[in-house]
Write a structure and sequence with these properties.
With 143 residues, the protein is of the alpha+beta class. Helix content is 39%, strand content 22%. This is DUF4174 domain-containing protein.
Length: 143
């Protein structure tokens, strides 16, 4: 019985063209990375400012196991770190963001929970201060 259920599930995955990697969304980063996702429209000055604020401090991003992604339209652009095989729609669905919304920055913890939602660019000291106050980060820093 279990074997036949597995066969049916595999058949459905193949038939729909869905792979485990593309169906993962934010789960692809779980327990490995904290993810800052910047949702914006093309040419949004707040997205440009958010990018500028973060690219100068790659050591702090690396120390905190960060991935920074920018989602504009149907495009997912890695700003820092390695992007998993995720789509813009998956990220919008996981974060509860409507397409066409102006600017939203969302911090997702390693546990997959949304830790911050902002409608303006987030300063590095605010972002890193929030992360550093998390119990998981304190545990990582003590090793």
């Amino acid at each position: 019985m279990i074997r036949s259920l597995k066969t049916v599930a595999l058949t459905l995955l193949v038939a729909t063209g869905t792979s485990a990697a593309s169906a993962a969304g934010l789960d692809a980063f779980g327990w490995k990375n904290r993810v800052l996702i910047v949702f914006a429209n093309p040419g949004d000055p707040d997205a440009t400012e958010q990018r500028r604020l973060l690219v100068d401090d790659t050591k702090a991003l690396a120390d905190r196991d960060m991935v920074v992604l920018e989602v504009v339209g149907d495009t997912v652009k890695p700003i820092y770190g390695k992007a998993a095989a995720v789509t813009a729609q998956e990220l919008r669905n996981d974060a509860g963001i409507d397409e066409g919304r102006r600017f939203t920055a969302i911090l997702v913890g390693k546990d997959g929970g949304i830790k911050l939602r902002a409608d303006k660019p987030v300063a590095p000291d605010q972002l890193f201060g929030l992360i550093d106050s998390m119990p998981m980060r304190a545990n990582e820093a003590s090793r």
